[in-house]
Amino acid sequence: MAHATIRDVARAANVSIATVSRALNGHGNVRANLREHVQSVAAALGYVPHTGARSLSLARTNAIGVMLPDLHGEFYSEALRGIDAEASARGLQLLLSNMHGDQRGTETLRFMRGRVDALIIMAPDIDPERLLAHLPASLPTVLISCPDVSADHPQFRIDNVAAADAMVEHLVASGRRRIVHLSGPRGNRDAEERIAGYSAAMTRHGLSPRVLTGDFEEESGTAAAQALLGDTERADALFAANDMMAIGALVVFQRAGLSVPEDIAVAGFDDIPLARFVTPALTTMRVGIAEIGAEAVSRAAAILAGESDTEIRWVAPQIKARASTIGGAA
Amino acid sequence: MAHATIRDVARAANVSIATVSRALNGHGNVRANLREHVQSVAAALGYVPHTGARSLSLARTNAIGVMLPDLHGEFYSEALRGIDAEASARGLQLLLSNMHGDQRGTETLRFMRGRVDALIIMAPDIDPERLLAHLPASLPTVLISCPDVSADHPQFRIDNVAAADAMVEHLVASGRRRIVHLSGPRGNRDAEERIAGYSAAMTRHGLSPRVLTGDFEEESGTAAAQALLGDTERADALFAANDMMAIGALVVFQRAGLSVPEDIAVAGFDDIPLARFVTPALTTMRVGIAEIGAEAVSRAAAILAGESDTEIRWVAPQIKARASTIGGAA
DNA sequence: CTGTTAGCGCCTTCAG
DNA sequence: CTGAAGGCGCTAACAG
């Protein structure tokens, strides 16, 4: 048999459903012993309120939707950690989903309608305009590292250009000249901006940029490293647009008998937890994605509380110089 | 202004809401051009169905709830990967939540009522009986590595006893005698069972078991390793109940000048992605948690489709012997 | 304090 | 093929 509803409780307790609702939601205006009676009847019946129905009538779900390119993986897992911590602290539930590509993304987003009070979207490679077209404009939406949008949404933007530039500076300062950049996929905002920062810095130093295109996956780091090994005049530094590609390359270089950083320096981007465990520890740019995630939840909550927020907040990554570029020290 | 509802569409299209519903949900019995008219009006109004209301009237949410001890971290992130892949393939949405302790856990579970069609719970340290008390018995619930329950739920159980036993065999075979076990927290099912398997194997070989109690976090591995370093007759192998603790210990041993595995072998449990990246690569037991997650979704879906399933399915971890216990080879 | 009455947004019989 | 009406489970005025 189906589950007990508020009506069943009301009948069993000989009161109206309104009284049950008030008693169970602690609305004060119920006689103390009646309240207890209702509570015990509810417990006896194993009554559990139907939160779906509840949020329909309250027009409030107490949940926020989160849309990430991936749910797993070191980087997004970190983002999730921050989001989860903050949401939990605020008593908000999370409706999580990954993109699974553009098509599936809009479908998922439609699903969120009526189930969440606000949205956090991280989509470096999908035009959020298209995504949001399927959603009520009234739904507060925080964007993280998304392509430009015309609508006034609160946003987080990572200063990829400056960060990539800084990494090149670091490599040049440690004597590298033939610095190759392994980029993320074309069309991805973060990837494009890192290429731009890299190229600008190289040019400024009179060095010629050389970009290999990857896809942010470990395997493309592996492939890039193998390609580099075949060169006659080998690069003396590889700067990958994320850590997983850098690590993939690191392994290949070492397996081929090169020593890192003596023969070739390797640097990544993101500072995923794994970065400090590989040998040698990976030099990278710390983005602090967990903090961004947490703050995104706070901003969403603030909007729900009535505040308005259309600010673009810039995040400046910090360099983490480790052994993979500065042999000797760690 | 609020978002358009089905009523707004009906009014604008000069039809009844029933017709709008039928037209938009592809119910065949609508004149072709009327259907198109409705669709275009809906599009013009930017109408997006309110899935919350929809599932209330359908008594079907198309979502499944997932409850994990943590959402981040290497192990649960892997579990999520499997769950997500399968759910996505079946067009199911995911409502994810972590436990945040017992109290918060039941609260979250109540939240799930009315929002999901089924539940997947992984809770090695919480009595699910207590958890499920707050939920309708009619909600299909798949349990992964939970303490025993009386109710007939489909379950996955990891054969931790046999796996821990096998790991001890491996270490003994490679000449180790003073094998210390660093366990997970007391009261955690997986932890207890691994202790049992370890102890049984040690005793069988006439070796004396020695168990240090950890908590599955990297720091407790660090601490345990430091404690071991102070011993007069040092252990020659450390078998940690999960990979993160093993890795924490690995780092400490090496930093103290010991070489692994020559001076001391180190083994973990889980085979998280990180395990193969540390130096030396970590010997561990592969649980295949992603596969379990995917299968859990399938079982939940099958139950929703009407099948009955109260089977306890056993999962046998596989040993992954790597350089941290068998120096030389990898 | 408590019961009655409308909905929240949608779907689905039941008539026409 | 289409419209009217009832209901999913719950909450919030509005009366008593």
UniProtKB/TrEMBL annotation, chains A, B:
Residue stretches making up the HTH lacI-type domain: 4-58
Entry-linked InterPro entries: HTH_LacI, LacI/GalR-like_sensor, Lambda_DNA-bd_dom_sf, Peripla_BP_I
Keyword Repressor set for record: yes
Pfam families: LacI (PF00356), Peripla_BP_3 (PF13377)
Signal peptide extent: none
SUPFAM superfamilies: lambda repressor-like DNA-binding domains, Periplasmic binding protein-like I
Keyword field: DNA-binding, Repressor, Transcription, Transcription regulation
Keyword Transcription regulation: yes
GO molecular function: DNA-binding transcription factor activity; transcription cis-regulatory region binding
Top-level taxonomic group: Bacteria
The protein's name in its UniProt record: LacI family transcriptional regulator
Organism: Sphingomonas glacialis
